[in-house]
Design brief:
With 432 residues, the protein is mostly beta strands. It is built from 7 helices and 30 strands. Strands 2-30-29-28 form a 4-stranded antiparallel beta sheet. The protein has a 4-stranded antiparallel beta sheet with strand order 4-5-6-7, with no helix packed on it. Strands 8-9-12-13 form a 4-stranded antiparallel beta sheet, with no helix packed on it. A hairpin with a 4-residue loop joins strand 25 and strand 26. The longest helix is centred in the N-terminal third of the chain and has 10 residues. It is globular, with a radius of gyration of 20 Å. The N and C termini lie far apart (53 Å). The N terminus and C terminus are likely disordered. It binds 2-acetamido-2-deoxy-beta-D-glucopyranose (4 copies). The site of one 2-acetamido-2-deoxy-beta-D-glucopyranose has 4 residues, from loops. The site of one 2-acetamido-2-deoxy-beta-D-glucopyranose has 3 residues, from strand 13.
Length: 432
């Protein structure tokens, strides 16, 4: 790997240090992000030219594969040397050159970026040892003059060789004027690596772009439930009061069910409701566009006031859906198997929370070994007023799923563990 490492400059908590959230261990933290440049001289030159401004780098997404902890750093502000990185349980991925934009650190100045990674919010590792990257293609998104540097695209890497397997730029029909792609979920099993689907929520355009690996094709799916709820668009994090109109943000997948498809649980960021639809609808453009498919989308229910969530992920073994809690500085959960018929404030739990260390939970992932990983990044403060470089600002937490949910409303029922996994059954929907 000749890439630059994203260095854990301040490993404040490499050893176990229990957060007051109680159930999650803080495994990594940073005051500011720093990167491993090829040489110390290259780093100094990047600082001198403004290509690297430490205070403008904030992490947003994470994913884990073996001893690599992927950490994304979107180009919200100028001076981000590399958007896609990893920490050796942080290096530029696959290397620094791919992450360098024209005009930054002596990169090519031709203005075309076909082989560059522009700005990544979140990534996903699949069961076929691939890394799926959604590149938003935009920089300086904090400014009104958000710059589109390249079309949004999907990149898929072979994690065993670090080779780019595929790059797919979204087509004109996939993208709307206000589109913003900050997340990706991958639907595949070890037996269907060549028939994988990626679902990419469009939080600005209120749709989902579906990509089929086998057909190397994409299409856009529309539905009312992909929009934000105007009554749930207010946020307060670390005393910063702000409004968001982010629509469909995150999708989490159930295990494969009897009919060969999964339930896709989804929500808008500015909403307290959770919805679901079968992947049967998403995977076929013709079916997705049938008028009657409107009714294939179900309202699960609301978690209650102040429960707006950004990222989510589902643990297939226990059926527990984990989601970030932006207004409550923590992590929420719901058991999609034992509480399949009952979605509401009483069946959702705030499983970890800390007003200081968990301020702005930006991502959560369940890894292949049954661990939950969560990243907090003080995003509201980072974007609004900037962060104090003398404070710890970014943290990675980890917990075993079983330990995390034990004794909570999300815990597995004894009967559930004995009988093994039962796929969720049909639900009633207020809308059907
Ligand atoms: C992480 O560090 C260890 C020990 O220094 C090394 O053996 C391993 O190859 C590194 N892994 C990555 C992914 O760089
Ligand atoms: C997939 O389609 C894109 C055009 O949208 C093309 O550039 C690329 O080469 C195709 N990849 C494969 C593997 O067919
Ligand atoms: C999509 O569904 C339609 C209608 O059921 C079917 O005719 C078509 O073959 C399906 N397409 C694919 C690619 O499976
Ligand atoms: C965390 O902050 C919320 C809202 O700002 C407040 O209601 C709650 O009491 C705080 N929790 C603790 C433990 O301080």
């Amino acid at each position: 790997m000749n890439g630059a490492a994203l260095l854990a400059v301040t490993l404040a908590g490499l050893q176990a240090c229990l957060a007051t959230g109680g159930r999650m261990e803080e495994v990594l933290s940073w005051k500011q992000l720093d990167f491993q440049f090829p040489t110390a001289g290259a780093r100094e030159a990047a600082i001198a030219s403004g290509d690297f401004v430490a205070a403008n780098n904030g992490p947003q997404g994470l994913a884990v594969w073996r001893d690599k902890l992927f950490v994304t750093v979107p180009r919200w502000k100028s001076g981000v040397p590399s958007t896609l990185n990893y920490v050796n349980i942080t290096h530029a991925y696959p290397d620094l050159a791919t992450n360098t934009l024209p005009g930054e650190i002596g990169g090519p100045k031709d203005g075309t970026l076909p082989h560059k990674i522009v700005s990544v919010y979140r990534v996903r590792v699949d069961v076929c040892d691939r890394l799926w990257v959604i590149d938003s293609g935009r920089t300086d998104t904090k400014d009104d003059a958000s710059r589109v540097r390249a079309p949004a695209k999907l990149l898929v890497y072979d994690l065993r060789t670090d080779k780019l397997l595929r790059q797919y730029a979204f087509k004109a029909g996939d993208v709307k004027e206000d589109s913003f792609f900050a997340n990706v979920v991958v639907d595949t099993t070890p037996q269907t690596c060549d028939d994988a689907y990626a679902y990419v929520p469009d939080l600005g355009g209120f749709g989902v772009v579906v990509y089929s690996w086998r057909h190397n094709a994409s299409w856009r799916v529309k539905h009312h439930f992909f929009h934000f709820d105007p009554l749930s668009g207010s946020f307060n994090v670390e005393g910063i009061d702000y409004r968001s109109t982010d629509g469909v943000f995150s999708i989490a997948l159930s295990p494969v069910q009897g009919d060969g498809y999964r339930s896709a649980y989804f929500h808008a960021l500015s909403s307290t409701h959770e919805f679901l639809v079968s992947t049967r609808v998403l995977q076929n453009k013709t079916i997705a566009e049938l008028p009657e498919s409107y009714y294939a989308y179900k309202v699960l229910g609301s978690r209650g006031p102040n429960t707006q969530a950004s990222a989510s992920d589902l643990d297939e073994k226990t059926g527990v859906l984990f989601y970030t809690q932006i207004n409550r500085n923590g992590l929420g959960c719901w058991n999609s198997i034992s509480k399949a018929e009952d979605y509401g404030p009483d069946t959702n739990a705030l499983i970890a929370s800390d007003n200081v260390t968990m301020a702005y939970e930006s991502d959560v992932k369940v890894d292949a070994d049954g661990n939950v990983w969560m990243l907090s990044n003080r995003l509201a403060a980072f974007l609004e007023r900037g962060l104090d470089k003398n404070e710890v600002n970014f943290r990675v937490f980890k917990a075993n799923v079983g330990d995390l949910i034990k004794g909570s409303v999300c815990d597995v029922l004894p009967a559930q563990s004995a009988a093994g996994l039962q796929p969720p059954t049909k639900r009633n929907s207020p809308n059907s």
